[in-house]
Amino acid sequence: MPDLVSFEDVSHFFENFKHTAWRLETQRAYASDLTSPNWVRFQRGETFGYNPDSPWHVNVREQTMQGKRFERVRLVDQPPTEGQRFLLASGLGNVEAGEDIRNLYRSDAEDIGLPDYDFWLFDSRSVVKFVIDSGGTTLGVHVLEDAESVVRACQVRDAAWHHAVPTREFEAQVPSSV
Length: 178
Hints:
7 helices, 7-stranded mixed beta sheet, alpha/beta
């Protein structure tokens, strides 16, 4: 396995990819969400969406305007955890920025053999595999470019994408507990 590097060390992938940036999100919660300004708003039951000043939204908008695609599939429990409900709420802003986010129930993901780890796949050539502790904190990532890792990530992407539901449609089906 390649060395563990910080997530910041791979940030260039998000601007330098040529065609697609695809993510699988498998966690029930992410520690970084608790420090988001939107977390407090979510806790109060407020809505929030696209933010033209958000660096993530700016980059997604810029890249998609060039014809590139940002896509992700998020695994969701039944019922969704609080962290997953936050991602459903915050994901709408990402969708408005140009990202195509889809959701898949964890039980369905297990049935089709999806892995239990997060990764980004860039241009079907580079895999950025997360190492996340039990508290949802990202410890770092491994950059994988060997054929076996890339082919497996492409297979996961194709299977997940085929079964996942677009986020607006999925959100409408999930009962709100707020």
